[in-house]
Amino acid sequence: MSAVNPNGKLGLLFTNAKPYILMIGLQFGMAGNYIFGKDVLNHGMNRFVFIVYRNAMATIALAPFAFIFERKSRPKMTLPVFLQIMVLGFLEPVFNQSFTYLGMKYTSASFTSTIVNAVPSITFLLAVFVRLERVKLKEIRSQAKVIGTLVTFGGALLMAIYKGPAFNLFHSGSTTHQDNGSHSSPNNHQTAGAIYILMGCVALSSFYILQSVTVKRYPAELSLATLICLAGTVEGSVVALVAEHHSRAWALGWDYRLYAPLYTGLISSGIAYYVQGLVMNIRGPVFATAFNPLCMIIVTGLGSLLLGEQLHLGSIIGGIVIALGLYSVVWGKAKDYSDSKLAQANVGDTKSLQITTNDDSKIDIIIENLEKQASTKQKLEEPNKEGEEETENGVMKV
């Protein structure tokens, strides 16, 4: 028995740590989404065409794995699930990506990754609206979630209206001339960019909420991610064909036009949808959005190192404020999760017990019935014992 317990504890530890490991690893992969996205926009690639190729490559990459690994466990497709997948394909692959890349075009990769930290708070608000989350203002955890949401919005608003002085993390003078245009550009470009990014955040939060509902109806994460990417490819193609009429915009080559859609399609769309669906099925949509500050830190460093982006004081202050508000929401959500687990454990223990100590009269009645049954059983056994003794005596006499 002693050899089994360590394995059980190790397995339990890995099970509890699995959502954290998956989400932390995903943030490193998602950081490349902002770097490649900003790079491809700087080179002039149409963002709608980029979105189509991104989701098409994600579909091609995920389809074989979904067919092989979920061939037997994949549930039947129903009309409600199909409609939900079509809405999911529009919310994130089309709406969110379009407005996020548009806002990134006006600002920077690090600025965009910082504003995206507002997604957990927006997700919390939407979850309350659709009754996936509960709020009791008398409880500390609910107060933490509400205050954290307000603080997060305050940080996003600060970043939208205040820019502040700029400085570089890894470059001193090589990119100063390059960024002079951004200094001379009006501040409303940053405000417009922040508004576009926030619009994308609302779409992404709606995507998380609907995905958490759909994955319960269609519990095949790989197949669901593949279908979402396929729906996004079809719907994005319609938008791209309307927005971009030149055939040259659809040309691919062995450069940014290939590796940017390939990386973002595989990591930011395909693997991200699968991991998010897996984690949300375990811990819910708010938990799945709680690790964005890590992505913000990675993007800030890579953006300065690879793209020569300048970091503004308003972005730093706003990012800190958003991170504080975010973790206030996450703390409240963690308390909800621990309390729900404790409640489930108590319900399981209650079901296994037929006698409770809350009603003394019931216990007395049960004890009396048991004593009566014991006395009756004893009386019935006494004649049998006497008959057995007589039989034994008779045999011995013979």
UniProtKB/TrEMBL annotation:
SUPFAM superfamilies named among the record's database cross-references: Multidrug resistance efflux transporter EmrE
Residues covered by the EamA domain: 19-159, 192-330
UniProt subcellular location: Membrane
Region of interest called Disordered, as start-end residue ranges on this chain: 375-398
Primary location group: membrane
Keyword Metal-binding: no
Positions of transmembrane segments: 20-36, 48-69, 111-132, 144-162, 193-210, 222-243, 258-275, 287-307, 313-332
Family: Belongs to the drug/metabolite transporter (DMT) superfamily. Plant drug/metabolite exporter (P-DME) (TC 2.A.7.4) family.
Descriptive protein name: WAT1-related protein
Species in which this protein is naturally found: Abrus precatorius (Indian licorice)
Gene name tied to this protein: LOC113867257
